Q: What sequence folds into this?
């Protein structure tokens, strides 16, 4: 009976949102809580409020529900607002400090892609003000409305974009609004060689003349691969993908230079290559380049073949769980973790994802990023992390030892333990071996291993 009453209350609260009965919604949510979802679509109360254009309810639900939460189709509330053309609500969502504007749904669309439909309608209606509003929100006049649900594209006339429609209808007052993209505006125009190089060059330093290296699988030194329902499958080729983000130099701050960061990257490349991993190392990227490279990694088809993914980030750490990039900007660690959630990176769904943070010293506290952080907004309903393990060089979030020419004791101990035991020991056993080695090298450091739904045994190779 309790189950039936709970189901009835859940249905009732969605009906109250649909009818715009705010008081009833508040009353019912005291019993249902904010985490309730529709069974058929897996939409949240925030999705429902967006769908029915309930602005006050959207503001209310944003206190309890993360704007990046997804439905069964992988749609965030912003995807839905864009598809419906609810621009006022979309602006509210975009103003949220945790909003990820680049999040893609299961059709590989960002919210900007879904703005194509209302943009086409605005061109059809010859509404200059509406077109300008949609363009300011990120609508692309050259994006094709080709999704099966779009229903707008005229295949006979071959009209799929707002620019094509404006030309066909001779909307001369609208065409000047559709500026052509320049190469500088297109993030895809940045060449890989401008921001990093592949890791094989790290194994042979004479070829290391860029900022990005590729890790190439050298040999498979593993023994018999462990299998079973309680063990992550690691019989893939490549065994895994490793992404190294190393920040050793910082703009106009020679005092922050991290000596030995390339030594750490070389040692990591050597260790993971011998275990059958492939990957890339990136050195001293800006914040924008970092986000761009992580987006490229997330969308790599190689991840579909790889058994796992390992991310190793070394830089200066911030007390509020940020790390410093070469342009003196900071990136939230939680943002990086969220970037590889199942809905964001389906290639890594049900696969182990390890994040290793070697954040030293923490540069001046007064220079920390301002504004709300993830910690201040925690507690909202959101998609959980799954199959994620984080290893921090210090339980305080960052260590106070300086880098040396030989690299950090944290990476040194990690590579040493992996080289000796990765083929025979499971992660928990490896961690105990690592603790012994690290304690010898850095007695005052206390590392931390954090589990986020990492529910099986894991062997690196």
A:
């Amino acid at each position: 009976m309790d189950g039936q009453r709970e189901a009835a209350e859940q249905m009732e609260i969605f009906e109250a949102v649909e009818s715009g009965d705010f008081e009833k919604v508040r009353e019912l949510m005291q019993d249902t809580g904010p985490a309730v979802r529709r069974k058929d679509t897996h939409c949240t109360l925030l999705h429902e409020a967006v769908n029915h254009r309930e602005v006050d309810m959207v503001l209310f639900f944003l206190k309890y529900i993360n704007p990046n939460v997804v439905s069964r189709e992988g749609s965030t509330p912003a995807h839905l607002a864009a598809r419906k053309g609810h621009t006022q609500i979309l602006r509210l969502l975009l103003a949220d400090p945790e909003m990820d504007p680049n999040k893609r749904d299961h059709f590989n669309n960002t919210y900007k892609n879904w703005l194509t439909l209302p943009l086409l309608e605005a061109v059809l209606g010859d509404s200059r003000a509406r077109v300008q509003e949609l363009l300011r929100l990120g609508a692309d006049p050259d994006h094709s409305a080709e999704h099966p649900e779009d229903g707008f594209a005229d295949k006979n006339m071959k009209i799929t974009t707002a620019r094509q429609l404006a030309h066909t209808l001779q909307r001369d007052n609208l065409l000047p609004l559709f500026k052509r993209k320049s190469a500088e505006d297109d993030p895809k125009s940045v060449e890989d060689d401008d921001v990093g190089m592949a890791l094989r060059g790290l194994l042979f330093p004479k070829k290391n003349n860029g900022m990005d290296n590729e890790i190439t699988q050298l040999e498979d030194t593993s023994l018999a691969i462990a299998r079973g329902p309680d063990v992550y499958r690691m019989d893939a080729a490549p065994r895994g993908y490793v992404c190294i983000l190393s920040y050793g130099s910082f703009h106009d701050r020679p005092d922050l230079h991290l000596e030995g960061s390339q030594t750490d990257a070389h040692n990591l490349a050597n260790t993971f290559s011998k275990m059958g991993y492939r990957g890339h190392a990136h050195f001293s990227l800006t914040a924008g380049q970092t986000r761009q490279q992580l987006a490229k990694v997330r969308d790599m088809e190689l991840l579909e073949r790889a058994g796992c993914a390992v991310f190793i980030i070394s830089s200066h750490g911030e007390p509020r769980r940020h790390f410093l990039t070469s342009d003196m900007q900071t990136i939230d660690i939680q943002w990086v973790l969220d970037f590889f959630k199942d809905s964001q990176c389906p290639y890594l769904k049900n696969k182990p994802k390890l994040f290793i943070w070697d954040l030293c010293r923490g540069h001046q506290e007064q220079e920390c990023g301002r504004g709300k952080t993830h910690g201040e907004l925690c507690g909202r309903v959101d998609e959980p992390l799954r199959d994620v393990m984080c290893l921090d060089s210090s339980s305080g979030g960052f260590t106070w030892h300086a880098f040396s020419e030989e690299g950090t004791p944290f990476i040194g101990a990690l590579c040493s333990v992996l080289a000796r035991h990765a083929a025979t020991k499971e992660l928990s056993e490896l961690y105990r071996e690592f603790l012994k080695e690290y304690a010898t090298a850095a007695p005052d450091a206390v590392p931390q291993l954090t589990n986020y739904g990492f529910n099986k045994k894991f062997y690196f190779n």
In short: The domain at 2-112 is CATH 1.25.40.20 (Serine Threonine Protein Phosphatase 5, Tetratricopeptide repeat). The longest strand covers residues 309-318. Strands lie at 197-198, 212-215, 240-246, 277-283, 309-318, 322-324, 330-332, 353-360, 388-392, 448-452. The chain has three domains: 2-112, 115-180, 190-452.
